[in-house]
Amino acid sequence: MDGMNAPPADISLKSILRALEDTDLPGLTAALEPLSAAHVVGLLERLDRRQRAVLFRVLPKDRALEVFELLDPPLQSDIVDGLQDDAVAALFADLEPDDRVELLDELPATVAARLLRGLPERERALTAGILGYPQGSIGRRMSPEFVSVHSSMTAAEALDRVSRRLDDAETIYTLPVVEDERVLAGVVSLRRLLAAEPETPVAEVMAEPQWARATEAAESAARRCAGLKMLALPVVDNETRLVGILTVDDALSIIETAESEDQARLSGTEPLRRPYLTAPVAGLVRSRVVWLLVLAIGATLTVQVLEVFEATLAEVVTLALFVPLLIGTGGNTGNQAATTVTRALALGDIGPGDLGRVLFREMRVGLALGLLLGGLAYAVTALIYGHQIGMVIGLTLVSLCTMAATVGGVMPLIARAIRVDPAVFSNPFISTFVDATGLLIYFTIAKLVLGI
After folding, report:
1. Which among 107, 226, 203, 207 is positioned nearest to 157, based on CA atoms?
2. Alpha-carbon gap, residue 123 to 99, rounded angstroms
3. How far apart are CA 151 and CA 187, in angstroms?
4. pLDDT average, residue stretch 187-200
5. 27: left (phi over 0), alpha (psi -120 to 50) or beta
6. Burial bucket for residue 20 (CB in 10 Å: 0-12, 13-18, 19+)
7. Which residues contact 93 (CB under 8 A, 6 or more apart)?
8. How do residues 10-61 score in pLDDT, each as one tens digit?
């Protein structure tokens, strides 16, 4: 959660902590009463597991559910651990089916099975239906609780159906229109139904449907929903039968999670999937250590290249001065290209089929950057170290920037083609690759220009 969830200035975190330490439950209840659900979530994210359980227990039932629904699934799991079975069962039953599935993915299998068994039959069937879809698919994040109308209905009949299903539906502002056997035929907004004459057939006011297949990647469907600015995107099976809807708030949540994961991996860590202050130190270490080990092993390539050209460095010691500059520039150029292309992939602007166009485009961008930086480097270096050293640095920057931008641009596309998260192949690995190959280019040009 962000700064919007910080408690108001007159509600001190210290007073909340003091009430928790003193087990002053009436005082804690009084302190929490004026806070919004979002502010309570902000407090929960700053407490340890025991304190969270105590604070959550003093919330009234309706407010507890509102707060619980706003928490990230890992924190929901922590809360479940601290509550008694009957309280957990009641809370679990009140969740929407898609929110239940997210929580079940965080819980031990035995706890998840027990909670499922305790659900009413209808809720258990809805939840089990969502669990049947693959991990990462939009079927796992859709809501099976929706109101659909038949294309043969009149506007009056459709509105009557909506009014009778108000308590069961996730949203009523965008309504899927179906034909026989629940085949999706279109969508109609509540606004258009209200504006239509009562006897107007729904088929005359509905629009062509945009939809997602239930097995489609959740992020892809969510970005389409957000891009189309739809309040709800119908989700269908392989026979185009309506099975659920993706609401815009769920779509934005999926996108936020995906972008947080990409940002973490671009920086060489694994996503925490929970607020920073609630993550245990061991979890922070685990999220970083594997990447550091992988990158450290990759960095041995740079050491080996330096060892191969040790004699060249010994002969012209000045070359060693420019190594940090060159590998830093190459890494930054590659990272810029990788970040730009990874973002374009996420937005659906490009796909693996655009590999050739991206390669040619980034090659030209890298060459232009290399000519600009190389020309400037030659002018400055030649004045201080002489014409030949200036030529070596200038030519190296031209070659290095061209190579780095090209590699940085195509690696995310290759990753997507082999069904790997493009962020995994982005900044950390590209920096390691460019460091090693950049030194090879540098010393090869130096040997040719200087004749050593």
Report:
1. 203
2. 12
3. 10
4. 94
5. alpha
6. buried
7. 118, 119, 120, 123
8. 446 677 878 888 777 788 888 888 888 888 888 888 887 778 878 888 888 8
